[in-house]
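Entry for the shared binder. Reason: the reviewer on the internal report wants the predicted structure included alongside the sequence.
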Amino acid sequence: MSFSSQTCVHIGHRSALLLTAAAALLAWPEVLPAQDSLARAVPADVGLYAEVHGATDLLATLTEPQIWSTLAELAGQPAGVEDAAEWRRRIQQTVKMQPDEAIRVLFARGVAFVGEGPGRAQDAVVLCRPASDVSTASLLKRWGAQRVPGLRRPKTYRLYRNIGVAEHKELLLFGDLLPPRGMFRRMQKLTTDPRGKALADDPVYRGLIARVPPQADGILFARLGQAAPILVPAVPTGSQPATQSTTQPQRRALPELPGPLRNAENVLLALHREGSLLHFTAVSDGRAEGVAARNGAAARVVETLPERTLLAWAGRVDFSHLPDVVAQLPERNVLRLALNLQEHADALDRFVQALDGNVAVALGLVRPGGRAAGAPPLPAAALLLGTRDAATVGSELRTVADAFFAGYTLFALPRGGPPMQSVQETRVADVPALLLDFSPLLKASAKEAIGQVHLCWAVHENTLIIASHLDWLRQILAARKGDVQNLSNVARLSRGKLTPAVGNALVAQSGPISDVGNLWLEYLRTAKPELFDESWWRQRQPGGADVQIGIIVAVDAPNRRLRITQVSENQPADGHLRVGDFIVGFGNRRFAGDDLLSEIRTAIRQRPHARWLDLLIQRHGVTRRVRLPLPFVDPIEALRRLIAIGQIAQRCIYVDERSDAAGLRGFLTIELRTSEKPLFEFSEPVPIGAPEDVR
């Protein structure tokens, strides 16, 4: 048994068409009257629905290879930049248009993406209203569409590889013709059933719509409580694809979600455009009760951070469990040993009790000394903690730091560890501060790249500021004192204000992150060219190239298959494979040799996509293709995607709040990038003021 090449092409074409639609749903919208909403042509019980009107200026950027591959992976479709050309070719084969022309013509007066639910979009449908100056007849002729017999209403046609298109009034409906009870068939039925219920009339949908500003330019609606399938349907042997899916949905526990998504069964996101600003309002039916009261102090900290802060988050954290976390560290951990040795365990308790729970994290840039010439600015981190008793916090942190130094001296130096200095007193921006310098502990290669690493801290206006670099501490203090520009102008772009009701606040300056990322790519191409080879990163992941998927198998040699006898928790196979399943192959083919264990190890090591592994599984006599997500990080690829995102969005601001008795509400504002000129000039050194009186 194997997949036919025809089937593989069909699946690829369907995914390409749907991914094109997904890109269009993020494109630049235009207002359309509410009564023209495409939700009136969608069944009431769908679990995933997204609609926008218009798709023009952002199209070229969204089809850029890095953006396209990011969208593809978010949709659960393994993709790399090299796949972008193939994706464009498949779109052209299906609708005889390049992606930009397809979106401009087909989605001119609105487009909707309709699926079974989050994580269940394999059988999704695209519903669109083409440009008014283009006739449906001319499009069908251009596509070479063939009328599907037996389907009189609505008129339905077959395109390339079983992609179907149906016409209903001014609308075109694209989807998979094969599943007899699939989403395409369900939407066809709604167009001819006068008793059918539409999503636009669904009470849940209407209730959420009523809680967002009117005349939305775009809508995303999802039923989070619907089950997500674990398996991807396989296709039987032969040239004819399967007539129906063999996948049985299995409910999977949802993770704890932030803000308005918390405890929610249904979520709606509404988009409103204001020039270069895209305002999103998120609402849900999540329960507001049980959400801790907030005093807003952490959120207001964001406004006082330096203007060049790349990423900032503020919220509330319960620190009462921190002593327990430290107690669970390995017995020979330096921090735990130091605290136990110095009998200062109660210092951590006093430190925690002096905090008020308001927390902020800030990432910025510094240029530490001692680095290689031409190295770009380095990311620096800071943690800002609100205090009830600033004096106690400062005193106890000094006690913990002294204990750490004493523990390091006692246990590391006899074992050949490099010496380090004790805690030093200094002044930063005319504020008393303390410094623990970890730079001597760095290896020579790390010191060339990083230069310096500190643990430095100061208390300013009842806020403890702990930073990874002395200069980042100086920049933060200067902004808080009003000596340099802060983030207040950026925060004001959001429709959500930093009030006492705010639970979380986030500012991401994606444009500047992109600009700095480009500097790093240029530098690394010369300094470390080996980093651009994915195989270099594969060898350095946990487990190396032979990543463990978390199963134990027994060889069934006569039938050329592996029987799964154990599945480990919290491993890639957990939730995807079961005890009793048989592995009969990988990718799109069965095992070919006699040494099945060696063959499967080679398949894992040489898998086409580092983040995915496709296995052929037999369960209850039915062969299925199972896609396992694998832990893999390629920092260079991640950096490229950050750069691509920053070429579209200059800044993003998010806040969530307890808005009313109906529940939580979140506000996300994206400022589009309208110029290639950098917001900040990072090619020049970041100004550094030397700390005074280090002693």
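Summary line for the report: The longest helix spans residues 390-411.
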